[in-house]
Amino acid sequence: MAGSTFGQLFSVTNFGESHGVAIGCVIDGCPPGMKLSEADIQPDLDRRKPGTSRHVTQRSEADQVEILSGVYEGVTTGTPIALLIRNQDQRSSDYGNIAMQFRPGHADYTYWHKYGVRDPRGGGRSSARLTAPMVAAGAVAKKWLFEKYGTQIMGCMTALGEVEIPFQDWDFVAQNPFFSPNNDVVPELEAYMDNLRREGDSVGARLMVGAINVPVGLGAPLFDKLDADIAYAMMGVNAVKGVEMGDGFDVVAQKGSQHGDEMPPTGFKTNHSGGVLGGISSGQPVVVHVAIKPTSSIRVPRESIDVEGNAATVETFGRHDPCVGIRATPILEAMLALVLIDHVLLHRAQNGDVTVQTPVLTMDEGL
Amino acid sequence: MAGSTFGQLFSVTNFGESHGVAIGCVIDGCPPGMKLSEADIQPDLDRRKPGTSRHVTQRSEADQVEILSGVYEGVTTGTPIALLIRNQDQRSSDYGNIAMQFRPGHADYTYWHKYGVRDPRGGGRSSARLTAPMVAAGAVAKKWLFEKYGTQIMGCMTALGEVEIPFQDWDFVAQNPFFSPNNDVVPELEAYMDNLRREGDSVGARLMVGAINVPVGLGAPLFDKLDADIAYAMMGVNAVKGVEMGDGFDVVAQKGSQHGDEMPPTGFKTNHSGGVLGGISSGQPVVVHVAIKPTSSIRVPRESIDVEGNAATVETFGRHDPCVGIRATPILEAMLALVLIDHVLLHRAQNGDVTVQTPVLTMDEGL
Amino acid sequence: MAGSTFGQLFSVTNFGESHGVAIGCVIDGCPPGMKLSEADIQPDLDRRKPGTSRHVTQRSEADQVEILSGVYEGVTTGTPIALLIRNQDQRSSDYGNIAMQFRPGHADYTYWHKYGVRDPRGGGRSSARLTAPMVAAGAVAKKWLFEKYGTQIMGCMTALGEVEIPFQDWDFVAQNPFFSPNNDVVPELEAYMDNLRREGDSVGARLMVGAINVPVGLGAPLFDKLDADIAYAMMGVNAVKGVEMGDGFDVVAQKGSQHGDEMPPTGFKTNHSGGVLGGISSGQPVVVHVAIKPTSSIRVPRESIDVEGNAATVETFGRHDPCVGIRATPILEAMLALVLIDHVLLHRAQNGDVTVQTPVLTMDEGL
Amino acid sequence: MAGSTFGQLFSVTNFGESHGVAIGCVIDGCPPGMKLSEADIQPDLDRRKPGTSRHVTQRSEADQVEILSGVYEGVTTGTPIALLIRNQDQRSSDYGNIAMQFRPGHADYTYWHKYGVRDPRGGGRSSARLTAPMVAAGAVAKKWLFEKYGTQIMGCMTALGEVEIPFQDWDFVAQNPFFSPNNDVVPELEAYMDNLRREGDSVGARLMVGAINVPVGLGAPLFDKLDADIAYAMMGVNAVKGVEMGDGFDVVAQKGSQHGDEMPPTGFKTNHSGGVLGGISSGQPVVVHVAIKPTSSIRVPRESIDVEGNAATVETFGRHDPCVGIRATPILEAMLALVLIDHVLLHRAQNGDVTVQTPVLTMDEGL
User: Which pTM was predicted?
Assistant: First the structure.
């Protein structure tokens, strides 16, 4: 495939640029017979959209989604579901100087060399704005997974720059602009961001995303392991530089007697694995950690070149997220949902007739 | 695809089980006209094969590769290259008890629930033995990349359990059984492993793999970013639980002014990005870090169930790697080579006519 | 893939239903740097659109295409090109009775059993209206092929029902509503169709489509032969029941000494092969013949069942093409263009470095 | 994909050359739990193998298949099934002159221009010998389809050169070397072939292949229609130049009132459609007709060029089939089986939860 399609059987083809006419996607392979309307999709788009607090870009986009096809009388028909979001607040004049220079740490330079042409307005195709259609598609996947298996997908921020965010309660995540599962740390996060904006700089973040009630058996031995596809999905999100399943890099110093999750008849006792064994879901919660780099569009001057190779000092003005991690939680949730639904369909294609007498183990611990 | 094929245009289809008749792969899409014989492939297989030191499994396999097709008079013809490795040392009696029980942390349980049947001998399809054909395919990819672009791919171990391995010199990697780029630490590593074997336990590891002389422009905006496909490839290797590009999880606490690699006309000054910007290669070295979990086949008794759901205490005897990370370096190198060659072919398919006046920046710093 | 995406590297994802909000497609993988605007696409859409003569459906659709993405300052950027066509003349009330009954020879019954739900308005997803986005995508492919290789793609009708249409001149094709390359036969065709409409019946047709200036070397040995992909593309067009390459079914009675096209240094002497040898283009014109069945939506009463399995007599009123073959020429041209561009990209991906001293043979005879 | 893999979910990757070490394939995605051994596969290979009568090539190949993986204790495990057939009777000296010249009508010329290198021995990769692994894979698919749905796949010859073969009885097909369903015509066929061999010429053939007990609902609206994939599969078989579904090219002159198969509650009354409506199986028998061209390797002298572009007269000696259609029946059966099983898996992936109250219609008429 040419690259803009995600998923094999529940396939999402993404299109659009940050400041083009519209962005959107086509979902192909959605099972028929599910109730669906824009109202099922909009809430996740609203969680991701810009301009909802002073800590994110002030671009004003309603991100209103329109279903163009694939739904008849409020029910999915099994045919492609096209979703359209018109861009509204394209203030392209902001980006004049960027068109001829390359921001350090940005896709400007690599796009230019790959294609020999690029839409520089708002980062064009490399903008995180293109995650909106994925959030929309993810909402469709989430709904199906929940109705079929009770699967629930949740994410939160676990660190903002140097500030660690100890987990308190999932309910808190929706109560602050940072998707922080900890309300006590919010003032510190706000002060941190306010200071950062004054400096004209940006910062990274760490997020966690996971799922409960994931059926056992999803994923292929090799190469389409469930965790391999999750890593692909997460690393494919703008600015992501690291992905961990379960204990992640902590496994380096672990012993086998410590890492392997014991599994007596009463159920899994721990979840070091993050819900995947040998590339296949175990029924434990799926747990993923993600590292997000600081935005490269900053006011701090940086050394670079222009399109003719001359030295240039780049300072980026315009509207940007000083921490793209802040709005990334619904994106990661959507990508996880898309991986899971694809593997559900792949699994039942090959193994729809499998029956096993062995009981499925439970797992008390949640995400 | 059904899952056992890696890569879109340079496609490797893997087959076999640990204790079956044979393992192997079919490489489809190799460019024609390259000199190739078994002698080009065997060295990497020898680097990966078992039984080369007391610190790895004592299973005795020559891992002799046979080219069945796709090469005529010593030159690739562009048609599928089938590679075959006969299994030799199948001591399946070792695995009697495992067939009816599930090792904590192992794929036993998930395979069973997915397929309702499994080959328990040596882990069957879930065995790391299946990485051998990938190492063979990777050797073909490495050769082509080197001849075409001078691309070189190198890996090493950077931590074994709690023991950190500070980088000294690439030349050292081939001089010890750990792929350690540090000779001074080798006695400590040996003592660590000897102790571990006595305890009947296993341990994790961290590895680095990278490439130099990677052309600029490889990778698609979304979703087939070069780093997304690298993450997929690495997380798909047995026992991997974490993948980082460049600075990886360190980016969480970085500022944008610190992370973005400045790029004056003299070239990139740093390589925090790990060689990928916006999902597309920048010409900087590609740098990847990988976390490998401890093996689940250990002598330490563990709580589990059997296939009927009854409580069982699992102790695994037989021949196993106490640290699969020790033999993983050539595997990670191969997977990186396979991702790179696939993206070279994808890139020139779409962008074969692109010409850009902007000079390509250099990067002095190596891996 | 879930089925609605055509092509591997120049990929077209189609969406929409006959009477939905909109139809369209996303082209992924178009090479960058080509000038493109709606004006390059609209002419082929106009050739295909309904209502242009009394011999086709009287539904009134402007089929005005809008480019939503992938083009910046009039040039393709290499990113997905989304094309949107709003439906305008949905007179869904026409289809009331069809919703509960199955037309013999129509997709009604099979869609219903496959999905358990369907959009019956105008045939929903099974409507030939969904070929419009393919015609639009094909126009993009045609433009690129012509600019790169001088490739030209042409089609015409060669039989309408029992009326054979002997070839006279390509120029005539645009001069009559039947895409007939013969002007003398047009009055007979008109009378034939007028009579058919009075009877409330429909009829089949045979079309030819071909290409000149196709580079040698397109297609893979197996399975993605150029002719195999052409057969897939053509048989995938609504109502097509037969596909022939070159001499097609006439080869059954041919001798090898008659069929094999002699190829002295002066060039190919004949073109029995239709431009493909061993699945790979030879540089001869590509020649394809296609059989199109009569429409199943007719006024003549037919025996069938309703959704509850009761006997039903089906008579279809509303607006329908009595011969879908009449508007099929631009569709077949588009599908051929899409196959060719995909194979050009696939070919240069693998074989971009191939050089051969052997001269390329010419072929005087055109289509 | 690089082209040598057939099928999306039941994927067969083919490898090998006519005179190489071995040929074979890897089946990925076979459902687990089916009994399978070489004895299930060999009979179809024996039907296809050379040397079984004086009317086919006299090359002596046992075509003995070895299962290398994917089967444990006589049962499929759901992991890749590798099948290996060693070549035995490579008499490559026969092909000396062919290496430097191009046979008219043969893949010689196009391979050479595509790859710049080719294995000329026995046609290398372009040889019909590469259909043997597909026959083997098809035997696995046939077994699964029969056990799951009672699906049966049958083929026969319907014309050999100018000799039409009127259908008499399926039982006759196995009783003569031509796969003729008519015993009376066999002497005429034998005389025809004997004469042809004396002339050193070759001839074409027409075959029919079909399936009964195909479940309703297989195939996607567009583009992966069941008939589109069948056309792809059939046109991809060596020497095929035409494919028809059901009435095929006869539909051109049919009226809609004649073509559309009436379907009262008692079942389909006719089968003009060939078992596919709107790209989706209807439950009627699937009926396909295929045109096979005469072999290009003939003793009759033909005008051509050599690799340097000089004029050359080509006369081909060595062992060849004067009519490749004679051995093609099991090949077409296999390809049809592979398409059907792939679509069964695709269908249940998306639509595994669909239930419909409408009864499934029957069809008395067989193939």
Answer: 0.97
